Amino acid sequence: MKTLTLNNIIKVAAASICISAISGQAANAGQMYNGVNYAIDSFADGSDVGVRGANSSYEFYGMAIKEAGDKVYIGINSNLALDGESYHRAADKNIGYGDLFFNFSGDNLKTANDSGNLFGIRFAGTNDSGVSETGVFSNVVGQNVAKENAGFRHLKHYDNWAKSDSSMADLDTTDEYFQDYYRQKHSVTNSIASGTKIGDIAMLDADALSGLGFDFGHFNATGTHTFGFSFDRALLPGADYIAHLFAECINDGMAIAGNLPAVSPVSASVPEPASIMGLAAIGIIGASGKLRKRKQADS
């Protein structure tokens, strides 16, 4: 598999920016605004039993990530409520969010998933995740739960429905990153199958996100639900990443490319100049004492 770098992803994403003739909105790739990294999806590619776009309960508008201090903050703007949407054909009568995946490996999604080289975040406590708790997980292997949620068979199936409006925000569904899953039935990773929990998350409402500088309205993202969560920065590595999120049914999804700077190690305290002089004096005195003892021993 070809190794993907953030520069390659940004080039692909930039080339894929398009304006929807139906909604008049843009699928904007990787935009920084007031210190927040935004991935704005097409506003016309969410599917809902014959309905597409703003009237769909599954329309995803955007996702954003901010690092500040010792925390990472993630915001989501969407028509889908945190606890999902009732649907009689779903195995548990509910279709909600899948889990959020972070890939720092530089490999495409399938390669990273097959090697358990993903991080995952379960934030929707009512979804079909293979882990029982919400939180941040490492050594993650993902699964697909679209079949249990009366969803699309694969990304090509989804594209056939969304047509030219299809988008994954910073990436396309046809991107090399997703290539191994594009036509493979019930395979694209949208739910954690297994992983090791390494930390908790704290849920955030729209007001809390606004106080942190999140502003989806700047991009005309008008989803009926805005929420997010935070977790300790130290739980994730410092590197370029691709993160993605699907609905459990694959009725919409988003990907975001970015970078988390390496966490600076706690540096050893540096002595003050006076202290350094004191240490030097102690060293000189010690050396003189040893020299005198040696001379006395030789005499």
From TrEMBL:
Signal peptide bounds: 1-26
Pfam families for this protein: PEP-CTERM
Protein name per its UniProtKB record: PEP-CTERM sorting domain-containing protein
Ice-binding protein C-terminal domain: residues covered: 269-293
Superkingdom of the organism of origin: Bacteria
Alphabetical UniProt keywords: Signal
Family matches, as NCBIfam families: PEP_CTERM, Xrt_dep_XDD3
Organism: Zarconia navalis LEGE 11467
Coiled-coil segments: none
